[in-house]
Amino acid sequence: MNLLNWLESRKLIYQKTNESNLSDQLEKKQICAYLGADLTASSLHIGHLLPLRILKILSEHGCKSIFLFGRGTTMIGDPSLRTKERPMLSQEEIYQNMNNIKPQVDKLIKNVIYEDNANWLLNTNLIDFLREVGSKFSVNQMVNLETFKNRIENNNPLSFLEFSYPILQSYDFYHLNKNHGCNLQIGGSDQWGNIINGVHFIKKMTSKETYGITLPLLLKGGKKMGKSVGGAIWLDEKQTSVFDFWQFWRNLPDSDVEDYLLKFTDIPHEEIKDMVKNSINDAKKKIADYLTSWVHGEEKTKNAKEKSISIFENKNMNSLDEFKLDDKQFSNSEIKLTKLLVEIGLSDSASDAKRKIKNNSITVNSELIEKQDAVISKNDFDSEIIVGHGKKKKIKVVLAK
RNA sequence: GGAGGAAUGGUCGAGUGGUUAAAGGCAGCAGGCUGUAAACCUGCCGACGGUGUCGUCUACGUAGGUUCGAAUCCUACUUCCUCCA
């Protein structure tokens, strides 16, 4: 089976350009692929994993791979499929984000070339750019792009700043093509319009053929996996602990497990089907192991897994994270539970803690707390106490010496 | 250039002077049942607060104004839509 067919069989391809030529080039290893990332946050999140996996597969297949930091384009903000303008980030923030993200990519893929589109976008001369590049784009076609459809149909404002985004991304592709011979761009399914524009642009500029692939959206329970609000799972372990990262995959809905194993592992399909059918929980551990190892390494994965098994399967509270509570937090040898919850990180604020207590989700030493003004006295710490939120989050609290 | 309409919380969408922190849906969080799953049932869901069914603050495009009181009325501005030129 050739590479493209294999990718298809793994459901890793959503859309692609010129299939037969692309496949040929892949087999001849004459592909140089690039993946771009916006720098809107200080860490990558799980939504980036699938495109990175493709880049990694291509790289291991012998194709040159480029990871492009969108330091220039992030200053514009990709409007693709969005309903509102993004907030603008300062140059310093964007730069800082790049510095945080680079080590993450380093860990995920070897032999990748880094580029930063600020290097060529920030110093362009406007008139030259419009004459050279802008003249090649048809507004008539651009307004019909899926990318802008949402905005235009719903009458949401779309500024020229954002409208120019596909042009800049196309220019990136052209630039990489010129300097690295890059001829394949990969991206999420929302990138199709941007990618296809780049392919057309390069064709116009150089008559050369280039290719594009988009990936399917990751689903959660049949719905789009939201990376918004409470749901973001970050690759940075300071933002999402390794344990929580492992737990996230361990808790996937049954209906998604086959798809995730197919996309993220090399396990033969038959074997996956078998696992899902006969031991769904082992299958979930498999996917958790696989992805956590990739992102955080074997060692940390092993620890997270052991901890999970110890806590959830063996009910062994000794494995819990320990929080050392400072003496100063007590007044009259007592501490309010709401304050304690905030201290140990189970709540964002006293109000939040109260809400949680009201929801019957807070336990102390496995006893449900019903009173919002509950107080823990110092004597209770003769031994450790275990504070729980829901049935999945528990923290062991001891007095600091 | 002219006439009219619209802008509501993460999102969609009610609400046209006061019991409105603002109906309802979706998303999210939590509890029950389970398998650390789904479905289903229930609760929470602007923020903060030493803890009351109470207080403070913030919020209905932006900035002012009228009023004891405004998401609701007035003025200006911004953006979008429709029609006329």
TrEMBL record:
A Pfam match: tRNA-synt_1b
CDD domains per record: TyrRS_core
Compartments reported by the entry: Cytoplasm
InterPro entries documented for this protein: aa-tRNA-synth_Ic, Rossmann-like_a/b/a_fold, S4_RNA-bd_sf, SYY-like_C, Tyr-tRNA-ligase, Tyr-tRNA-ligase_bac-type, Tyr-tRNA-ligase_bac_1
Keyword Ribonucleoprotein set for record: no
GO cellular component: cytosol
Self-association and partners: Homodimer.
Protein name as it appears in the record: Tyrosine--tRNA ligase
Protein source organism: Candidatus Cytomitobacter indipagum
